[in-house]
Write a structure and sequence with these properties.
With 616 residues, the chain is α+β, with helices and mostly antiparallel strands. It folds into three domains: 200 residues, Aldehyde Ferredoxin Oxidoreductase,  A, domain 1 (4-Layer Sandwich); 186 residues, Aldehyde Ferredoxin Oxidoreductase Protein, subunit A, domain 2; 155 residues, Aldehyde Ferredoxin Oxidoreductase Protein, subunit A, domain 3 (Orthogonal Bundle). It has 25 helices and 17 strands. Helix 2 packs parallel to helix 21, helix 14 packs across helix 15 and helix 19 packs across helix 21. The longest helix is centred in the last third of the chain and has 21 residues. The model has no long low-confidence stretch (mean pLDDT 97).
């Protein structure tokens, strides 16, 4: 079995001891890597997840690479982190890219599992077979960027890559993320807060070993072909403008959330567009390790906050910009820097601040509640101050926002829950609900909450392949297919921007076989994707998730869009129910969203069938 290191690290933080676990061929074929390994292990290691406080030592923190990491495979140097999410209370995971995954795999490890809680702050070093837990007292309290520099200095070697948390993770802000190489983040679900709860400040990895592949010549030929395709039209917008190209496209379609999702257009969209950003603020365009696309656009502020530099993608630009009524690229660049250095997810942060701004403008929050901050849409100063306080849990405002939009709205009450934009506790990403209705179904049924990265269902809406302002039963099949495909992509793990480069699932299976030597067809690898998704759902069912949790927020049903381009758009509840039924039927789940025993047995999940499955 090539591609895999064949082993993973087990770190008992309570005792300060490490041991080794093994990855066998059966595990690899059934679960591939990344998402699959994480779902399988989280389910097995947490038999009663509903009883586990995400901040308790009983929560398990799991890191996995995929079989492609450390090889020449196109855009395959990624790693994933898993735990019970402190933000949602259910299955939590996130993915990051960069050199970290490659170094981790080259050190001879497929993953790492952290249990317990260290008495004092520590960080882990992985230097091939040399594993050490070191004191992090000197770096506790430092930003993610400072932590990376200080660890490299302490180890005396710049070749180490570092994944760390900032002050937000240390303070267990529920939106906290994990940062590696400054601009790369495990962003969603608050997994940085889980690290903070375990007193784990960082992981530093360096590897000197080659990652062996099964068919070197065949892989070289296939990757050369894929890389050539990556220079074609399927990835052109990412190469030129990066994901911020979506700003004007979405504004034209009326699906660009603004003013906390009250509208689907932004009157200043031109000023914060990808086109404007490229002309005025982009300092450089860089690529992730092993990526031929180079979509990462790094901004430098020009006037306000001069010298500030941050990596600005569509989600960050949109949620910290139009969603908060902000029209200044300088301010947005600074906002992203605050989030990246102090360590919070930009999507969740922009969402919860947008909610707070609406609360303030409606008189639900007062200046007393916000510690004197005039929290109004369009206020550059208010956005930056709110983000700083959120990250540091500072004052009444910071404490409130640090809980995430679901908990914050429950604390405040007064009807603010109605416009708290989340699903299952995860803040909604930068896609309007009412004007992209297939997308909304995909977000709402996602295993980790409101999630644009689990099915790609927004694509059929944006491309005009369906009537995006209506729903019907057939949309369930679209979401189902997308989720299974994306489960494979997130298990291999490869960049989703290459999804248009692969011609079929057979080509993904071919890539897997060339690297690992394990025979896999397109049909088989897609079945593995379905298996993986069901294991994650079963974990959530154990946490209490049912049909009641698979709905968008009330605004989707109750507030018609006022924008001229999609005026009056709203989700009709009876259509949504029909689409949700169609999704469950495709999945082989009950009408209440619980996997049927026969479906679980068909997927080889006998344990889940016994513990979670229901009869038809």
């Amino acid at each position: 079995m090539k591609g895999y290191a064949g082993k993973y690290l087990i770190v008992d933080l309570t005792r300060g001891k490490t041991s080794v676990g093994r990855v066998d061929e059966s595990f690899a074929l059934n679960y591939i890597g990344g998402y699959g390994f994480g779902a399988r292990m989280l389910y097995d290691m947490m038999p009663k997840p509903a009883e586990v406080d995400p901040f308790s030592p009983e929560n398990v923190l799991i890191w996995w690479t995929g079989p492609l990491a450390g090889t020449i495979s196109t855009a395959g140097n990624k790693y994933a982190v898993f735990a019970k999410s402190p933000l949602t209370g259910i299955f939590g995971f996130g993915i990051s890219t960069g050199l970290f995954a490659s170094e981790f795999k080259s050190a001879g490890w497929d993953g790492a599992v952290f249990t317990g809680r260290s008495e004092k702050p520590v960080y882990l070093t992985i230097d091939d077979e040399n594993i050490e837990l070191r004191s992090a007292s000197r770096i506790w309290g430092r930003t993610t960027w400072e932590t990376e520099e200080m660890i490299k200095e302490e180890l005396g070697d710049e070749s180490f890559t570092v994944a760390s948390i900032g002050p937000a993770g240390e303070r267990m802000v529920r939106l906290a993320n994990i940062t590696n190489e400054r601009n790369r983040q495990v962003g969603r679900c608050g997994l940085g807060a889980v690290m903070g709860s375990k007193n784990l400040k960082a992981v530093a990895a360096r590897g000197t070993k080659d990652v062996e592949v099964f068919d070197v010549e065949g892989l070289v030929r296939f990757i050369a072909e894929l890389n050539e395709r990556c220079q074609g039209p399927a990835t052109e917008k990412y190469r030129v403008y990066g994901t911020p190209a979506n700003i004007l496209v979405h504004n034209k379609l009326g699906c660009l959330p603004s003013y906390n999702f009250q509208r689907g257009t932004f009157e200043y969209a031109e000023e914060v567009s990808g086109e404007m950003m490229l002309k005025t603020h982009v300092k450089k365009i860089i690529a992730c390790a092993g990526c031929p696309i180079a979509c990462d656009h790094v901004n430098q502020a020009r006037e306000d906050h001069a010298g500030t530099v941050s990596s600005v993608d569509y989600e960050s630009l949109e949620l910290l910009g139009p969603n908060c009524g902000i029209r200044s690229l300088d301010t947005i660049t600074k906002a992203v820097e605050i989030c990246d250095t102090l360590g919070v997810d930009t999507i969740s942060a922009g969402n919860v601040v947008g909610w707070a701004m609406e609360c303030f403008e409606k008189g639900i929050l007062t200046k007393e509640d916000t510690d004197g901050v005039e929290l109004r849409f369009g206020s550059n100063e208010a956005l930056l101050e709110a983000l700083r306080r959120l990250c540091l849990k500072e004052g009444r405002l910071g404490m409130l926002l640090s809980e995430g939009v679901r908990r914050a709205s429950q604390i405040v009450g007064k009807g603010s829950e109605r416009f708290a934009m989340h699903c299952k506790g995860l803040e909604w990403a930068a896609y309007e609900l009412r004007s992209l209705q297939t997308s909304t179904l995909g977000f709402a049924v996602s295993n980790r909450g409101a999630d644009y990265l689990r099915s790609g269902s927004y694509q059929v809406d944006v491309k005009g392949q369906v009537d995006r302002l209506r729903l019907d039963k057939s949309r369930g099949k679209i979401v189902y297919d997308g989720e299974n495909q994306y489960a494979v992509i997130d298990s291999l793990i490869i960049c989703k921007f290459t999804r248009g480069v692969f011609k079929s699932m057979d080509e993904l299976a071919k890539l897997y076989t060339l690297v690992t030597g394990l025979s896999m067809t397109g049909e088989q690898i897609l079945k593995a994707g379905e298996r993986i998704h069901n294991v994650a759902r079963c974990f959530n069912v154990k946490c209490g998730v049912t049909r009641k949790d698979d709905y968008p927020p009330p605004r989707a049903f109750e507030d018609p869009l006022p924008d001229d381009v999609v005026k009056g758009a709203v989700i009709r509840r009876e259509e949504y129910e029909e689409a949700l039924d169609g999704y469950y039927e495709c999945r082989g789940w009950s009408r209440d969203g619980i996997p049927l025993k026969r479906k679980l047995l068909e997927l080889g999940l006998s344990k889940e069938a016994e513990e979670v499955g229901v009869e038809a």
